[in-house]
Write a structure and sequence with these properties.
homodimer; 409 residues; Carbamate kinase; VC0802-like; globular
Chain lengths: 409, 409
């Protein structure tokens, strides 16, 4: 008998019929002889409806009160899923974030998990009950309701699996697993049987929005093996786990793309200590997530230049944040911007032991007639920017060049 | 500076505009120099919508899970009302039933308040905050969400007022106060400035559904003076408090009516000990609330008879519950039923020190050509049944006979 944690997202519990399907699926797992703990999100549409009401009242509603408001969505889901299980004869019980012992820290609406106290969950499991736990929520050290922000239910599932020492954690979602590339773009993209945490993290931060990075980081930190699989069928999905010797021996695990990026280049920055920190700090304060950052230290003229990419939609905000800091620090600096670009990343731990990976990638792009803009690399990733109109061709060219459609030995 | 608890029902917070009105009203009270604690219900319609979903899943949903589901309604209200206050510049904070320290006992969906721990509320009040507390909910000794059943938000308001030693507790509702009789029936009915707990209890149990009896009982037990007043205007309402010497010196405080009653008479019951208890016990097990109960002990024929009234809608259930118990205990007993009757009650603590009250009432009814059916009395109430078609005439006749349209000295 295994202890299995299953996470169901908002679409999976989006109607009474779908809630019944979730209950039926949990019972199938139970009938195979396992103990089941479900972590569920709010029914799709509920959270948006609550946010809409809050915004009607205030353009800038209190984040503490948003937490109180939004946490009700998951609380409703756990009650309804539990009722559906009970209706099918299962001894089930709902568990709020507080009851699951999810203790949090950080700002309201963006909580982080501080620690877990699974005492009540253990008590119910020992009594043979099936558990339905509210995703996305926990409680602060002083007892206030706290939500975990985007991807919070995935994070809850991983944390619950860690605290209960579950045998399996299944993230049931609307995709079949993690693919070598988006199958809508690359027709012969292949579902991966396994991927390492590090690769998953690079894929997540490179536009493959299967899961938020922090959930993967949490799983890596606590050694929680989890599986991304479809809630619509029983196909095996993709296992995400620590890199191991028997893993499929690929140089590149997958290719991910990110559209609607913009590049900002600042030239004419005096080469004095702390200057870059203050410029990048101004962007961080404006809550702009920079992606690729390329800095050239002082040229022969004594000035430095910085280039970075960000989502196009942040461009206006970035210019507004940069103007005052440049006016005071570097009155001669110039800002150039370029929209309409996209980012392509090739990710794989095999890169660590293989040389020449970048060369293969650049040659493939060249042969397809695609110009490369910026380049940035990590230990297991090579990312380039290309013109947005060419991103799909670029993805196909790189996918082919590394033979990702074929299982490697 | 007074500490004022204000209870707002589901209609008062039934839309975003109404929530804004609640916030504005709280601020008016605050601007008069008082500290304000609001207790709010779920937005009207929300609870019914949740129950509807639960019933789609199960014809008999778990009461524990119903509590988890329904408690979200009030949680949403407190967040939205708090946001509305904050939008108007007030330092406000929402408080769930758990955070208000409302500890409960009893079955799920029908919780009773066991004790209160107002520590967190005091902490926020000492910090100068305006509090918005969720009505209708508390938490069991083992930390489970618990709702308080019908009238639960009134009960919360009284309990919060008791635990905070509030100066005033205002029950803001859709009526202006407690009237000498229903003004839709008796045109010259008068709003009472004061009414004693005991009178209010008799009025509540006699069809004047301003408040549930248990909230009034709780207030009486803890000496919470409360005021029933309109949420739609600023008129003074009716103060409910312990009887005191300066209270308006009325023999009868008010007249209340209850329609759609039925009478059940059982004849031919052997006069053996314990028989009545078993018959009435069968009705109690079927959760039928008997109202007037008249038992004649053994007649000359050696048989007893019982008559009682109940809501007409319970008649079928009562017959079903009685049949088996009578078949085994009193095979010769006969059940007679009569529908289409109504009950009129005259209530007043003045009755304790005045004789002849019943005579005035019966004469007034006789003069109006109204036949009296059953009669039952308590220390401060005289209740009679009449034909339902005559109940409005009866109410007017009794109201006039006691001069209830005039303030008494």
């Amino acid at each position: 008998m295994a202890l299995i944690v299953q996470k169901y997202g908002g679409t999976s519990v989006g109607s009474i019929d779908r809630i019944r399907n979730v209950a039926a699926r949990m019972i199938r797992t139970r009938d195979e002889g396992h103990q089941v703990v479900a972590v569920v999100s709010a029914m799709s549409g509920v959270t948006d409806g609550l946010i809409k009401m809050a915004r009607e009242i205030s353009s800038n509603p209190s984040e503490r009160e948003l937490d109180v408001l939004l946490a009700t969505g998951e609380q409703q889901s756990i009650a309804l899923v539990t009722m559906a299980l009970q209706e099918l004869g299962v001894d089930a019980v709902s568990i709020t974030g507080r009851q699951a012992g999810i203790h949090t820290t950080g700002s309201h609406t963006r909580g982080r998990i501080l620690n877990m106290n699974p005492a009540l969950m253990h008590q119910f499991l020992n009594a043979g009950k099936t558990l339905v736990v509210a995703g996305f929520q926990g409680v602060t050290p002083d007892g206030m309701i706290h939500t975990l922000g985007r991807g919070g239910s995935d994070l809850t599932a991983i944390a619950v699996a860690a605290s209960l020492k579950a045998d399996v954690c299944q993230i049931l979602t609307d995709v079949d697993g993690v693919y070598t590339c988006d199958p809508r773009i690359v027709k012969n993209a292949r579902k991966l049987p396994e991927i390492s945490y590090d690769e998953m993290l690079e894929m997540a931060s490179s536009g493959s929005k299967v899961m938020q990075s922090r959930s993967v980081e949490f799983a890596k930190k606590f050694g929680v093996v989890f599986e991304v699989r479809s809630s619509l069928n029983d196909n095996p999905g993709t296992l995400v786990l620590e890199e191991h010797p028997h893993m499929e021996n690929a140089v590149i695990r997958g290719v991910s793309i990110e559209r609607s990026q913009a590049r900002v280049t600042i030239t004419g920055i005096p080469d004095t200590p702390g200057m870059s920190g203050r410029i990048l700090g101004a962007l961080a304060e404006a809550e702009i997530n920079l992606d690729m950052i390329i800095s050239n230290i002082a040229q022969h003229d004594g000035f430095a230049r910085h280039s970075f990419t960000m989502p196009s939609c942040d461009l206006g905000k970035a210019q507004a944040a940069l103007k005052p800091v440049l006016a005071s620090l570097a009155p001669d600096a110039k800002i150039e911007t370029e929209g309409g670009i996209a980012k392509l990343s090739a990710v794989g731990t095999g890169m660590r032991s293989h040389s020449g990976v970048a060369a293969i990638m650049f040659q493939a792009l060249g042969a397809a007639g695609i110009n490369i803009g910026m380049i940035s690399t990590s230990e297991i990733k090579i990312a380039v920017t290309v013109d947005e109109t060419q991103i799909e061709d670029a993805a196909r060219a790189v996918h082919d060049a590394f033979g990702l459609d074929k299982m490697s030995a």
